[in-house]
Each structure stands twice: as structure tokens, then as C-alpha cells.
């Protein structure tokens, strides 16, 4: 016999619906409370449900108990437990997060523990596994082995292209050798035909290697790279362009005696950066080509016929025309002075104590030294003027009395005594050249011979060679 329920049948369905509604309302709170409990356990922090006012276990007992448990587990490094008013503070290091959470849960389950502060840190796990590195090395090795054929083909193409470029440069140099006289211009033009050949070979190598974009960048970025390099090396580019213009204009040749600004010497070298002069003292002077191109260049060797000059002062009491004739005779009689153009002697200045004569003469600078010839002519002129009775007073220390100075003896007003006449100067024949002057030959050969043993400061190719 089946027992009957005390609830009437008509009330069963409403009561069942009411139970479902109540369970639906209570269930979220239960689930939320369970979730919060789980989160608290995972974070290593837990609180007691009921905090006793008078705990049975002391803080020191809890601390000692937890300290022994953590040390006995062997999972922690330098574990430290501190308990204050039922709150457990955990410090130390653990190998994994699970071990740290286990320590927090252990402390939370301990008797009379109010809360747990888990400060156990996780030690980083150093992995000494070298297999990833070995795998990467193996990948690189495999890629390198696959690239060996491409590298060999590219090297062969570059070598062939380099040889073709050199042959092209030599061919253009042979073709243009009779039309371009400047060695530098010939080199630049011939290499200008060789550069495109080498760039084409480089493009083929990049194309074979599968670097199509890089190949296009190389071809398209050549102009941009040239501009950038030009700005970075502006001074070098300026000197190089100046060397091109100097080699085209050719204002001097190797061995010419020139003056560039304040520097004077014999041209020994012209390269892409500087011009080297050898001074009369045997020193090498390097002048940047840009400065040479902008400076005033005086070439003493361009015309071997050169004019020299010097000055001489005579007394106001002497006949100027007579002194001019004496000096002219000295010049015309000297073998180093050219008769065409003829030497001239002019009055240059009426000074305080002298009449200054300016002497001009022409000579061959390839044969005779300017300073030696000037010394010889001044020496002969001085002696010829003295022999001719022409005085040359000193402007600062000498006073000339042409009529003499009367001397009185005895009382003032006595008869003056006529001054004693000076002896005429002794005539001496001056030679055209003396050993002290070293002759009249040009000293350029001596300078070059003495400096021949020295090393040129710039060992690069001389662009004046063969000019």
C-alpha cells in the first residue's frame, strides 16, 4: 500500500514552482562565495571563518610549527615564518607557484590562524638546455650549404665583370689617348666607361641571389649615394674637381718654377688632392688643389726670357746722365744680359740725399740664376760708378761737401787754408762672375739634385708625369 502525501494534490504544483524559484535565487550567492574562496586559496591569502577572542595556540607555537613544516618539505629556500596576532607572514623562495600556494594554504588551515600574508617569491628557473641554440646553428648551416652554389656563381660573375671593366677602361684609354693629353682626364674618362660594366655585373649577382629589391635599390640609389658621399667628403671632392681643371688648363708643368700665393718653388707633383712644390731651401710644400685653382699662379718657367731689376743711388752733385751711361755700359758688356730687349736705366726717385736710379735688364732664366746675375751686376755697377767719379752717399750717415770745407787757423778772419784734394779712387776691374757668387748658372739643377734623395710626402701617382 503506497503512503499518501500530507500535501494535497492541488498544492503540489505551486509549491514545486516556488522551490525552483528559491533555489535559483540562492544558487548565485553560493557559487559566488565558492568562487571567492577558491580565489583566496589561489592567491595564498585566507581568513578564518570565526576569529576566536582567546586563541588556544600562541603565536610562537604557530610560528615554530609552520617553520618546521616548511623546512621539512625541502621545497623552499630560506623560508621564514613570522606570526603576529594570529596573522602569518611567509617569506622565502620557492621553485614553483604551486609550492608557494601550498604553503599559504597550509598556514591558513593551521589552528588559530586569523589570516595569511604569503610573500614567498618564485625563483626563476634557469634552463641550460642548449637544444634550441643547436637547432638554430643547424638551420644556419643548412642555409649556408644551400647558398654555396649561389655564392660561387656570384663570385665568378663578379670576377668576370671586374676583368671586363678593366679591359673596357684600357680600351677607352687606348682610343682616347691621342685626343686627351691630360693623364688625369684620360683616367677619369676611361674609368667612367668601366663603372657601368661593374654595376651591371653586381646587379646580375643580386638578381641571381634572389635579392631583386636590393638590386633595384643599388641601381636606383647610386645617384643618392653619390650626393650623400659628396656632402660628406666635400673638401676631397673639391680638391679632386680642382685637379681635373688644373690638368685640363695646365697652368704649369713638372719642373716649372712657380709662385702660388705666398709659396714659391719647383713643381714636383700634382695628384688628386694636392700640388707639391720644392722650395729653393729644399723643402716640400703641399698646397690643396682647390687653393691652387683659386690662387694667383705665377709661372717663372713659362717664358725663359725674364726681366730683373735693382736700384742704385747717386749724389745730387753728379751728372745723372753720365751715371746712366756708366750703368748702361756695365749692363751691355755683361755676357748674361740680353741685348734684345735692351737694358734701360731710369730715374726712379729723388730721395733726401740721393737720386735713385732703377736698372732693368733681361736674361735667360733657364741658363742663369736671377739672384746670382743680380749680384754680379750690382757689384760691377758699384765699381764702375766709383771709377767714373760718381759718389754714392749714404742717406742716413754721410754729408757731401762738393766744394770742400775751408779750415781757418789762428784768429778769426785769418787767411783760410785750402783743403787738401782727395786722392782719386783706385780703379779695379770687376769680373762678370766670381767664385763667391757661384757663377751665373741656374741653381734649379742643384736644388733638384740635393732634394732627389728625399721622399716625396705624397707617394701617389703624379698627374704631371709625361706632360
Automatic annotation (TrEMBL):
Assembly and oligomerization: Homoheptamer.
Annotated TM spans: 147-165, 186-208, 214-233
Short name of any one Pfam family annotated for the protein: MS_channel_2nd
Protein name stated in the entry: Small-conductance mechanosensitive channel
Molecular function as annotated in GO: mechanosensitive monoatomic ion channel activity
Keywords on record: Cell inner membrane, Cell membrane, Ion channel, Ion transport, Membrane, Transmembrane, Transmembrane helix, Transport
Native organism: Bauldia litoralis
Domain BON: 58-124
InterPro entries, per database record: BON_dom (IPR007055), LSM_dom_sf (IPR010920), MS_channel_C (IPR049278), MscS_archaea/bacteria_type (IPR045275), MscS_beta-dom_sf (IPR023408), MscS_channel_2nd (IPR006685), MscS_channel_C_sf (IPR011066)
